Amino acid sequence: MPANLPAEAKQKYREASLARRPEEKIKKLEEFMSLFPKHKGTENLRAQVKRKISLLKQEIEDKKQKRTGVATGPKVFVEKEGDAQIVILGPTNVGRSSLLSTLTNAKVAVLNYPYTTTEPTPGMFNYQDLQLQLVETPALMEGSSEGGAWGLQTLTSARNADGLVLMVDLSQNPVEQFSLISRELEKAKILTKKPKARIEIEKMHMGAKLKFIVLGRLVDCTIKDVARLLKSYGIRDATVKIRGEATLDDVEEAIFEGKVYRPAIILANKADHPLAAKRLEQLKRAVGDELKIIAVSCATEAGIEELGAELFGMLDIIRVYTKEPNKREASMRPFTIRKGSTVFDLAKRIHSDFYTQFSYAKVWSKRLRFSPQKVGGTFTLEDGDTVEIHTK
After folding, report:
1. Which of helix, strand or coil describes residue 161?
2. For residue 388, which of 367, 370, 363 has the smallest C-alpha distance?
3. In degrees rounded to 5, what are phi and psi of residue 317?
4. Which residues contact 138 (CB under 8 A, 6 or more apart)?
5. Mean of the per-residue pLDDT values for the chain?
């Protein structure tokens, strides 16, 4: 990311952030791009701003479509439903449509010619008591990250997802296919390996001031330096969460909604091909320990039965069941929350009143010596726990 952008550029970005109409935002962002130099250090920033402009243009088209009732173009991404959204990425003809058709009730065309999918297509996959929304996206190709073909829809869907399935075809060269996926994700600033720093900037209502939650450490700066940088971009009312080891450049990148981390697995399709075993070993050597690889065949459904557990494990979430006081049975549908979450985190998910008026909770869990056990809000939950919250 470029540090020390000209003051005029920062002012223009402030104006873009404050603009309400998408047409005005586009104009200000284009002016912003014209005010910083063109060199290797600003390539990523330029790509990110272009992506924002593309999304704003799509927003304008969507509004026209709603007013006229006439479709003006493919949707950019699918709204989330269920417990988690997982996007299926890959080059053309690797079996993305076949996988979605096999696992869900989605009606998709499974055809032999390339590039048949032109917009994100969802389907619901039931695993135990979870509903996982799988989304097939248009095929990745060289240049997708630069807006080529359906690159905007595919990579915006990936950024919006909770997790990714990176799909390759063992009847072809899977190493080349994985390299293509990796390159396009990298250019789009989508990480499949946990970064050293993770920064979230949540803009609040006017007058809220800057609030910092540092769960890691700042490497080359202080909180005052971060506050000064944010204010130079017109960000004065926000909650800033900093995890891991963060630099000032990391903070600046987060201002422009830069890198995002999405957990992923590699799905190697057509495991029934005569050369599949040899090519799978080549893929494993190329990937190393970076990502988990699962070999399947959508044609014979070999390996498909393992997918539910693998997807659940990839997402780094747990299932927590709730029980109302004075009722014998817990809910059948769990809440899904991140591993390491506390009773307080669950209370916030249910309703803000459960958090602000929290008194204590009872927890039923296999790991406890006896159940239920009375606990406080900071008690860490695990998968399968049942919680009964009592308020004041």
Report:
1. coil
2. 363
3. -120, 165
4. 115, 117, 118, 119, 120, 149, 150, 153, 154
5. 86
Distance in angstroms (rounded) separating the CA atoms of residues 73 and 50: 19
In the structure encoding, which two tokens stand for residue 74, read together? 């493919």
Q: How many CB atoms lie within 10 A of CB 252?
A: 22
Looking at residue 21, its amino acid is R
What phi, psi does 209 have (nearest 5°)? 70, 175
Predicted confidence (pLDDT) per residue in 182-227, tens digit: 999 988 889 998 888 888 888 776 666 888 888 888 888 899 998 8
- The closest of 338, 342, 343 to 319, measured between CA atoms, is 338
CA angle (110, 87, 168) in 5-degree steps = 60
Q: What is the reported pTM?
A: 0.78
Q: In the block, which residue shows the tokens 């893929």? A: 283
SS3 (DSSP) at 314: helix
Report d(CA 307, CA 305) in Å as an integer: 6
Report, as an integer, the average pLDDT of 352-363.
93
Residue 365's pLDDT band (boundaries 50, 70, 90)?
very high
